[in-house]
Design brief:
Elements: E1 3-8, E2 24-33, E3 35-36, E4 39-45, E5 50-52, E6 55-57, H1 64-76, E7 82-95, E8 103-114, H2 126-130, E9 133-139, H3 140-153, H4 161-175, H5 183-191
Parallel strand pairs: 1-7, 2-8
Antiparallel strand pairs: 2-6, 3-4, 4-5, 4-9, 7-8
Length: 192
């Protein structure tokens, strides 16, 4: 799968990723890109006031596709997940908050897929419920504008919002049917 972007958190600006001298926690995640016209299925998190792609950590013994399907079912109630195809990997190096590791190296495997229109029941974890997480269909341009506003104005924003906003803009650039709107509107809305 192609690498979309590799980022290093600003607190790790001296990090040399080719010669890691750190005790590193490695995490793999699978994330779903589910489009319906200009709308995209996202997770809204009230605590951070942001929109993220549904998905999460790949369990021990799971491959990325199995993890994707499980996470989509749990977080959104997605049914009949199909037509799964690779989109790209987003790589991150972040500070880690537990004493047994210095940093986290995360690879997010992103896939485009289709689901049935009707969502079933979610199986959110306790912390997801406490954070006010819920699946929503939202216009992708509105999600980008919302996340950019949160980045610019929120002191409580989560660490993942830059990844999510980058991914949303990449989805617009590569997957949206540009023939459905005037070119000026697409460029303005994607840039705002």
């Amino acid at each position: 799968m192609r690498l979309l972007k590799s980022t290093v958190h600003p607190d790790l600006n001296e990090l040399d990723t080719s010669e890691l001298q750190y005790n590193t926690f490695h995490r793999k995640a699978a994330r779903g890109i589910i489009l319906n016209g200009d709308n995209i299925l996202m997770l809204y998190t009230e605590r951070y006031h942001d929109y993220t792609l549904p998905g999460g950590g790949i369990d021990e013994g799971e491959d990325a596709i199995e993890g994707l399907i499980r996470e989509l079912q749990e977080e959104t109630g997605a049914q009949n997940i199909r037509d799964i195809r690779e989109f790209g990997i987003y790589e991150e190096y972040r500070p880690w908050y537990k004493p047994e590791h210095d940093i986290m190296h995360m690879l997010s495997y992103c896939y485009v897929c289709s689901i049935d229109e009707q969502l079933g029941d979610t199986k959110l974890e306790d912390y997801e419920v406490k954070n006010g997480m819920k699946p929503v269909w939202i216009n992708i341009y509105d999600a980008i504008a919302h996340n950019e506003h949160t980045i610019a104005n929120s002191e409580k924003k989560g660490m993942s919002i830059e990844r999510e906003t980058f991914l949303l803009k990449t989805i617009v650039a590569e997957l949206m049917d540009k023939g459905t709107a005037e070119d000026g509107e697409i460029l303005f809305r994607a840039a705002s």
